[in-house]
Amino acid sequence: xxxxxxxxxxxxxxxxxxxxxxxxxxxxxxxxxxxxxxxxxxxxxxxxxxxxxxxxxxxxxxxxxxxxxxxxxxxxxxxxxxxxxxxxxxxxxxxxxxxxxxxxxxxxxxxxxxxxxxxxxxxxxxxxxxxxxxxxxxxxxxxxxxxxxxxxxxxxxxxxxxxxxxxxxxxxxxxxxxxxxxxxxxxxxxxxxxxxxxxxxxxxxxxxxxxxxxxxxxxxxxxxxxxxxxxxxxxxxxxxxxxxxxxxxxxxxxxxxxxxxxxxxxxxxxxxxxxxxxxxxxxxxxxxxxxxxxxxxxxxxxxxxxxxxxxxxxxxxxxxxxxxxxxxxxxxxxxxxxxxxxxxxxxxxxxxxxxxxxxxxxxxxxxxxxxxxxxxxxxxxxxxxxxxxxxxxxxxxxxxxxxxxxxxxxxxxxxxxxxxxxxxx
Length: 425
Known about the structure:
The chain has helices at residues 29-40, 46-53, 57-69, 134-151, 191-199, 208-217, 278-282, 284-291, 303-313, 317-341, 356-370, 373-376, 390-403, 406-418, and strands at 6-10, 16-20, 73-77, 88-92, 98-104, 109-115, 120-126, 159-166, 170-171, 176-177, 203-207, 226-231, 235-240, 345-349, 380-383. It is of the alpha/beta class. The protein folds into 3 domains: 6-95 and 407-418, Arc Repressor Mutant, subunit A (Orthogonal Bundle); 98-212 and 390-401, Nucleotidyltransferase, domain 5, CATH 3.30.420.40; 220-384, 2-Layer Sandwich (Nucleotidyltransferase, domain 5), CATH 3.30.420.40. Strand 12 (226-231) and strand 13 form a beta hairpin.
């Protein structure tokens, strides 16, 4: 959380008001230590917490009792067979709160709710186009999220954070899109404020490629620094640094690589108004347009994805040639990014990543031809492990990090202290 950033906390009668982070109460270091050890899995009992933290057992007991009383931790009997008094196991309570995530894409969106351990409780696909405008998209997406909360009996007053990914540049601090192409009505729209009013919880808005990169970075074998390129209606990239942070740039424009001039761009007109951009000749949409395949139909929002996959599987010459040419153009841009960021892992995501073999071979060939061995000797180039679920998992990762920050913990304690008793929720 940045200095002076506005967040929301509960006051009496369940209402919330904006408050500066500096006005939140300080979290006692002992309480933070106890919660950190339990959430990380490093300690699962009071004795282990005392041993690892160096805190007195009485202090540990007070903090554990406080967190259990607030419904943030739970203490259960162990199933292990031991002599004497059976040990009690501390875990994060599944009712400690809920995270709501929406990954909005051009043709359809994915929504999900998760508990604070990061476990996905439920998720759905929402068929609504982003060009329907912010009001229609937000009402539809938040309606689905609200329905998921109700269907799975998750307390709406314990939504700890809402995260939304959008397919365009985002001002992360202001929580709004900035001059996105193909998204009429979205420029400057206060998305985070809209979400906060709806869920009465802190809200974060980010670029969809950033969330995809975060989701992939959390998977086994995905070493950082990590560069994730999403090839969809446009082409975007997310960069995860060695310490796990998203590199967003000064104004949220980092990773908008679809508007970089392509080697074979020629006079192809891009949605940004320029010609020869890589997104104009190598995006999924541009390939479909070149092959005369409709991007979507009334019955199938992903019609183009399915038809292109079928044609490539059947070794249709025009389709295979178009895919390989796009892979080469993307590989040229990827080689430049490999020079700039020297990632340990390069991930290809989006609809084209489902056509794994042809896409990977073309990108790899260009990267290894263009980039020097120093930048590629330990580089792994692969496709997204989570498929189209990467953005949802990235949103969950971003939210849990915020929830368990010092400010997030303080906000959680304030909300639960001034709301109804935890045991009655």
